[in-house]
Amino acid sequence: MKRILMACTILLSLAACQKENSVETPGQERLAEVRFGDEYAKFEYAANGQLTKAIVKDDVSTTGEEVVFNISYGSAGQISEVQKSDGETIRPVYQNNRLVKAEVFSGAEKVGYTDYIYENNLLKTVEIKFTAFGDDITTMKFVFTYDAQQRIQRSHVWLLNPLTDVLEDAGYSVLEYDNKTNPLYQARDFMLLLWDLPSPNNITKETQFLADNTLDETREYTYTYNSKNQPASAVQKTTSGGQQSNTNITFRYQ
After folding, report:
1. Which of 17, 194, 203, 222 is spaced 20 to 30 Å from 7 by Cα?
2. Burial environment of residue 137 by CB neighbours within 10 A (0 to 12, 13 to 18, 19 or more)
3. First-to-final CA distance of the chain
4. Tens digit of pLDDT for each residue in 177-226?
5. Positive or negative: CA dihedral 154, 160, 163, 165
6. Listed residue (247, 236, 233, 181) closest to 204, CA to CA
7. Judging by DSSP bridges, how do beta strands 122-132 and 31-36 pair with one another?
8. Does pTM surpass 0.90?
């Protein structure tokens, strides 16, 4: 889900997993769909505002196929299970009212899990693990640094080298924001399970660096807002290797 959600955020700024009830800003509508080129994410809600279904098509996380996520809740209002149309199930684990683990099952078999590690009440590290033949292998790790508003300022990623079985520095992103409400923040509890953590505000610039601090790519976002001060559309300008390209992003509400 990474690429489509970069349309308005690298999605990494949540201090703790909270209840999905009543997360909308008064007077604003819930996000029904965001489109990024031919990729999209659609959202459906219950009458109480809880997100109950997400339909996603993304070249990276769903390999270009549409995947449906059906979301269930426990008595405390926290997500208890996410069932995917590809047969996988995500089951979160909470401690002290915040998400600390998300286990992934294919049928009855656990095939992986994600650990969420906090520091000073902010999510500091996310470690994604794959389970095979009784072994847990860390395939990816994110480490986050926050700004004064507790938004992700820097997201650093490590990826597993399959030839050496060692996590290697894959670079980092530096993020800048506006001061307006990010509509994807309403779905933050669900997206946290997919390693996508929305900031309360919209990203205006994302600068990506390689592990050796060499500039890799810059993405700049220009938003058009509706009468409720929510993004109606945006243009992502990408600059890489001296070349520029633009991608249109649209938002629909209900």
Report:
1. 17
2. middle
3. 22
4. 999 999 998 888 898 888 877 889 999 999 999 999 999 999 999 999 99
5. positive
6. 236
7. unpaired
8. no
Cα torsion for 238, 241, 242, 244, to the nearest 10°?
Answer: -20
Domain containing 164 — which CATH number? 2.40.160.190
Number of domains in the chain: 1
The DSSP code sequence of 69-111 is: EEEEE-TTSSEEEEEETTSEEEEEEEETTEEEEEEEEETTEEE
Strand partners, 35: 40, 250
DSSP states of 146-161 as a string? Answer: E-TTS-EEEEEEEEEE
In single-letter form, the type of residue at position 182 comes to: N
User: Position 21: which residue type?
Assistant: N
Q: Please, which residues bridge with residue 202 across strands?
A: none
Residues 6 or more apart in contact with residue 115 via CB below 8 angstroms: 100, 101, 125, 126, 127, 129
**Assigned token pair, 55:** 């339909």
Domain that holds residue 246: 2-253
Q: What is the rounded distance in angstroms from the CA atom of residue 58 to the CA atom of residue 69? A: 13
The pLDDT, as a whole number, for residue 151 is: 94
